[in-house]
Design brief:
This protein is an all-alpha fold. The chain has helices at residues 7-15, 17-72, 75-80, 105-126, 129-145. Helix 4 (105-126) runs antiparallel to helix 5.
Length: 146
């Protein structure tokens, strides 16, 4: 806008108190932003350094645990460790024969309800209340059909 002004108006504008205050305000804001940016960079570097230090400490502790486990002889046992699955009808459950037709419908429903209760408890333990609620509603619907 000031480029299209006549020379006299542009000169008067550049010497005016409004323009000088405007320039001063821009300079102050620039300095303020530079200071804030420096603080943010310093904070980020401090947090990154702290996180890296914690990771190094954790790695050291894990190495100590691994070394201790090897010394005690637990390292070989850890490979054989399998988490217990409480679900009866889980597809990998070796205790359920897939071609077993001796099951009655009531038995199957009971086992499904038991499995759903286990799943609901796991959801509650993990803090997933929405999932636990949905599972409980499913259990209720199955029980209402009986």
């Amino acid at each position: 806008m000031s480029k299209s002004w006549p020379k006299e108006d542009a000169a008067a504008w550049s010497r005016s108190e409004v323009f000088q205050n405007f320039e001063k305000s821009i300079a102050e804001n620039f300095v303020r932003l530079s200071t804030i940016q420096q603080r943010i960079e310093k904070n980020a570097q401090d947090k990154l350094s702290g996180a890296l230090e914690k990771v190094k400490t954790l790695n050291t502790e894990l190495q100590k645990v691994k070394t201790t486990a090897e010394q005690v002889g637990l390292a070989d046992d850890a490979k054989d460790f399998v988490q217990k699955d409480d679900l009866m009808f889980h597809q990998d459950n070796p205790y359920v024969e897939s071609n077993n037709e001796d099951w009655e419908e009531d038995d199957i429903e009971d086992h499904i309800i038991k499995d759903l209760k286990v799943m609901a408890q796991e959801a509650i333990n993990e803090g997933n209340i929405k999932l636990a609620y949905k599972i409980e509603r499913t259990i209720q619907e199955i029980m209402d059909k009986e």
